[in-house]
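Proteins fold reproducibly. Consider a sample protein:
=====
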Amino acid sequence: MYPFEVYQIYVALKTHFSRKTYDYFQYQGSIKVSREKFMERNDVYFFEKLSKKYRAEEVEEYFVSNFLVNSNFHIIQMNEKNYMDWKRKMQSITYLFGQDIENLSTLSSNFNDVFACNRGHSQLLKAYLGGRVMLETLIMLNKITHFVNRYDTLLKEDVIWKQLSLLLHKYDPFIEEDPSKIRQLVLQKL
């Protein structure tokens, strides 16, 4: 992999996570970048380093893991720890999701009540915002309940939800869990 290719992935994923209108998957990671502008950058070294260290798929994962921490990260601010933490999480996603479902089930005798969004944020959102549930859990639950579309309507004026909704939409394609497997896990834990 060449440094310029790493740069293209970086720009495409940064745009994907920071702009509503660009979809990394729809455009297959294609984005217009200039080789000349790339060579003028004073951070080319970081792209060279990543091109030697990782394969294309790993470069993509590296950037995704760092943009989840902060979608405005500059290449210099990105670090290996974010990537390793994310990779560890992905390797045990089924177990961690199960733990999150157990935690959520303690919030109400009826699991559906966790999604209720009557006055402000639901228990599910509060659990996520309080750090008791992973972002990936929200995405996996959305794959089987489609709660995000409902919340988009109910919480359309909520600034926190707008940002989280965009992040959920942008991160969702990176979580490739089968909805029937997710449903089965939820039913086992309840």
